C-alpha cells in the first residue's frame, strides 16, 4: 500500500468522481484508476461502486476512508513539523471562507499576513459552509471563516465579531423617507435574497419570520454583488451584511439600519480540534483574532 494510492482513494471518495480526483491529484485518469485497482487487489475488497459516471463507496471503502484520511493528516503534520523546525516563517497554510465573507475579509487579511511572512504559501478555498467544514475535518483546510456554529465534536470554533445586516434598497425608495424601518415594514416588499444553500439566505428568512414577516421572494442569487445590482435596479429589497455594504463604494444601493431587534450574524473561525498547529498557522489564527468588522 502506497501513500499516493491513499491520496487517490481519498480524492475519489471526497469528490465522488474519478475524473475530478485525477484533476485534483494531477495525474491521468487511467493512471489513477490503475492504482485504485492495485489497492483493491491488495486489500481483497472493492472500494467503490462504479455506477456510470457516479461513484459510491462500498462498506470496505467506508471503513478505509477515515483511516486513510488520518494517515494522510499524519504525513502532512510530519512535513509541517520538519519545515517549522528549520524555519517557523516557512511552510504552508490553507484558509477557507464562505462566499459572503471571502471577498471582503480575506484580501486585506492575507495581504498583511504575507507581508509579515513572505516565505509562507497560503492557499484559499471559497465554498459553502458544509464543504468547508468537511475540508477542516479532512485536513484540506486549516481554518475556515463561516457565519454559523459548526456543530461537530472534532471542530473548534471561535467568534471573531458580530456584524449587522442592513436594509438595502434602490435609491429614492419610499422606505428611505421614514424616520425608522422595522422588519415587519418589509412584508409588502419584493425581496432579492441569497439562495437558501447559502447560510445567509436561511438567516434572512429566519429573521423575517421571527418578526412575522414572510418575505415575498422575487429573485434569488448565489452572489451578493448580483443581489446589490438587482436591488439598485429596483427589483426588490434585501438584507446585506455590513462588510458588503461598505464595499459598495459607488453606492449603487442605499443602506440603512433596521430598528431593534436588529438582524446580525456572527463571524467565526473554525479549525480541527486534534490537528497539529504549525507556528505559521498559530500566527494566522492570531491575525484573524485581530479582525474587526471592516
Number of domains: 3
- How would you classify the quaternary structure? single chain
DSSP summary, beta strand count: 11
In what range is the share of β-strand residues?
15-25%
The CATH class assignment of the largest domain is Alpha Beta
Low-confidence stretches: none
Task: Report the span from N to C terminus.
Answer: 49 Å
The second-level CATH architecture of the largest domain is 3-Layer(aba) Sandwich
Shape: globular
Largest sheet: 7 strands, mixed
Can you give the helix content as a percent range?
Answer: 40-55%
Number of helix segments? 10
What's the SSE pattern?
Answer: HHHEEHEHEHEEEHEHEHEEH
- Secondary structure category: alpha/beta
What can you see in these coordinates?
The chain has 294 residues and is α/β, with parallel strands linked by helices. The chain has three domains: 3-79, Arc Repressor Mutant, subunit A (Orthogonal Bundle); 89-160 and 267-289, Periplasmic binding protein-like II (D-Maltodextrin-Binding Protein, domain 2), CATH 3.40.190.10; 162-266, D-Maltodextrin-Binding Protein, domain 2 (3-Layer(aba) Sandwich), CATH 3.40.190.290. Helix content is 43%, strand content 23%. Helix 1 crosses helix 2, helix 1 packs across helix 3 and helix 2 (18-25) packs across helix 3 (29-43). The relative contact order is 0.14. The model has no long low-confidence stretch (mean pLDDT 90).
Amino acid at each position: 500500500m502506497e501513500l499516493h494510492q491513499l491520496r487517490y482513494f481519498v480524492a475519489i471518495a471526497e469528490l465522488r468522481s474519478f475524473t475530478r480526483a485525477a484533476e485534483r491529484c494531477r495525474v491521468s485518469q487511467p493512471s489513477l484508476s490503475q492504482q485504485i485497482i492495485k489497492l483493491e487487489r491488495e486489500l481483497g475488497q472493492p472500494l467503490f461502486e462504479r455506477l456510470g459516471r457516479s461513484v459510491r463507496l462500498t462498506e470496505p471503502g467506508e471503513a478505509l476512508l477515515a483511516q486513510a484520511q488520518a494517515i494522510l493528516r499524519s504525513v502532512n503534520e510530519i512535513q509541517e513539523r520538519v519545515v517549522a523546525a528549520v524555519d517557523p516563517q516557512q511552510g504552508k497554510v490553507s484558509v477557507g471562507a464562505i462566499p459572503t465573507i471571502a471577498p471582503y475579509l480575506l484580501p486585506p487579511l492575507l495581504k498583511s499576513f504575507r507581508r509579515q511572512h513572505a516565505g509562507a504559501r497560503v492557499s484559499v478555498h471559497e465554498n459553502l459552509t458544509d464543504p468547508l467544514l468537511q475540508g477542516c475535518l479532512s485536513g484540506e483546510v486549516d481554518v475556515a471563516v463561516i457565519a454559523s456554529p459548526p456543530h461537530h465534536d472534532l471542530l473548534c470554533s471561535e467568534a471573531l465579531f458580530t456584524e449587522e445586516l442592513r436594509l438595502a434598497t434602490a435609491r429614492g425608495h419610499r422606505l428611505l423617507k421614514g424616520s425608522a424601518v422595522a422588519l415587519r415594514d418589509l412584508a409588502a416588499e419584493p425581496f432579492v435574497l441569497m439562495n437558501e444553500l447559502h447560510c445567509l439566505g436561511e438567516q434572512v428568512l429566519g429573521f423575517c419570520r421571527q418578526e412575522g414577516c414572510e418575505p415575498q421572494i422575487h429573485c434569488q442569487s448565489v452572489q451578493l454583488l448580483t443581489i446589490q445590482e438587482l436591488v439598485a435596479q429596483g427589483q426588490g429589497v434585501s438584507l446585506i451584511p455590513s462588510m458588503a455594504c461598505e464595499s459598495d463604494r459607488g453606492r449603487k444601493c442605499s443602506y440603512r439600519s433596521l430598528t431593534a431587534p436588529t438582524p446580525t450574524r456572527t463571524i467565526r473561525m473554525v479549525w480541527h480540534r486534534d490537528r497539529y498547529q504549525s507556528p505559521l498557522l498559530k500566527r494566522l489564527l492570531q491575525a484573524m483574532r485581530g479582525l474587526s468588522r471592516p
